[in-house]
């Protein structure tokens, strides 16, 4: 799933490519993608892009006519760029890299294609087993429920310790779940929550209410530091290399069976919600192993 550092890099790239260009055509091949049926993406034909922005894990395009296109990439959504000469250049997630599709299956088909006045096109796909890609055309991004409910973003320069403390709020909920809860903290998913907790040396299954003052201090620093440094690190990386760069930078996430770079223990898997996550027993759980759901 794309998370805030990768979505930010995507938004910055698309803002550079698209600002000033007018939409010449929109082809929606999967009707379930359209979430505002009275205002389909085709209503943007003739409108000129003025900016691209990020809201948590969602992408927003502003248009001169005061309309906004909000795109949720969902679990396996991605975007690719097609130049006016017909050459396709990836600017999002390659499903072969994410593991969402067989690498031999070739590129996923476009579910939505947005063409521009210079002959170029931005194509969106969804490589998952069910369609999670979503498009909204609205007057205000806050009309999109996923945007309206977002909590404060750790990448925002205005994000404060008070914002962080309100998000955790002494809650009797596993801290990893709180980090991934978009209503509490915007933009963090499975991968970066693993990285944050590993950096803070905190168990992913401890309840937020049980954290000591020192642990909260470490968790705040790790949350802000991990997300902002990842955004800085992704900036300038060719977007088609973004996923591979993210994977290579991970210290714990996706590293099960490998050596922890901090203590030398073995990184292990554990079951979390409907997925699998990773942690270091020595660094995070006092040597205790967490449960892994049987296959």
Automatic annotation (TrEMBL):
GO terms for molecular function: class I DNA-(apurinic or apyrimidinic site) endonuclease activity; kinase activity; oxidized purine nucleobase lesion DNA N-glycosylase activity. PROSITE patterns: FPG_CAT, ZF_FPG_2. SMART domains: Fapy_DNA_glyco, H2TH. Its cofactor is Zn(2+). Residues 251-285 form the FPG-type domain. Pfam families: Fapy_DNA_glyco, H2TH, zf-FPG_IleRS. InterPro entries: FPG_cat, FPG_N, H2TH_FPG, Ribosomal_uS13-like_H2TH, Znf_DNA_glyclase/AP_lyase, Znf_FPG/IleRS. Gene3D superfamilies: 1.10.8.50, MutM-like, N-terminal. Keywords: DNA damage, DNA repair, DNA-binding, Glycosidase, Hydrolase, Kinase, Lyase, Metal-binding, Multifunctional enzyme, Transferase, Zinc, Zinc-finger. Its EC number is 3.2.2.23, 4.2.99.18. It catalyses: Hydrolysis of DNA containing ring-opened 7-methylguanine residues, releasing 2,6-diamino-4-hydroxy-5-(N-methyl)formamidopyrimidine. Residues 2-99 form the Formamidopyrimidine-DNA glycosylase catalytic domain. Belongs to the FPG family. PANTHER family: FORMAMIDOPYRIMIDINE-DNA GLYCOSYLASE. This is Formamidopyrimidine-DNA glycosylase. It comes from Agromyces ramosus. The lineage of its organism: Bacteria, Bacillati, Actinomycetota, Actinomycetes, Micrococcales.
């Amino acid at each position: 799933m794309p998370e805030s550092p990768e979505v930010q890099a995507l938004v910055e790239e698309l803002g550079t490519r698209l600002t000033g260009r007018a939409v010449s055509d929109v082809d929606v091949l999967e009707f379930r993608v359209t979430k505002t049926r009275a205002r389909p993406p085709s209503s943007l034909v003739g409108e000129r892009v003025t900016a691209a922005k990020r809201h948590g894990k969602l992408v927003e395009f502003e248009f001169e006519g005061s309309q906004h296109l909000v795109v949720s990439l969902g679990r396996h959504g991605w975007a690719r760029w097609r130049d006016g000469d017909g050459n396709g250049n990836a600017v999002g997630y390659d499903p072969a890299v994410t593991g969402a599709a067989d690498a031999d299956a070739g590129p996923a088909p476009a579910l939505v294609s947005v063409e521009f006045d210079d002959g170029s096109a931005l194509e969106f796909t969804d490589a998952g087993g069910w369609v999670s890609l979503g498009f909204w055309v609205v007057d205000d991004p806050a009309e999109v429920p996923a945007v309206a409910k977002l909590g404060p973003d750790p990448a925002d320069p205005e994000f404060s310790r008070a914002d962080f403390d309100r998000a955790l709020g002494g809650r009797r909920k596993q801290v990893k779940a709180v980090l991934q809860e978009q209503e509490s903290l915007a933009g963090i998913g499975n991968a970066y929550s693993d990285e944050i907790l590993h950096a803070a040396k905190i168990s992913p299954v401890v309840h937020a209410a049980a954290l000591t003052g020192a642990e909260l201090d470490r968790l705040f620093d790790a949350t802000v530091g991990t997300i902002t440094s990842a955004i800085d690190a992704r900036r300038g990386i060719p977007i088609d290399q973004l996923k591979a760069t993210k994977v290579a930078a991970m210290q714990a996430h996706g590293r099960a069976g490998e050596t922890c770079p901090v203590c030398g223990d073995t990184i292990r898997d554990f079951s979390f919600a409907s997925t699998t996550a990773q942690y270091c027993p020595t660094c995070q759980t006092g040597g205790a192993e967490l449960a892994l759901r049987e296959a």
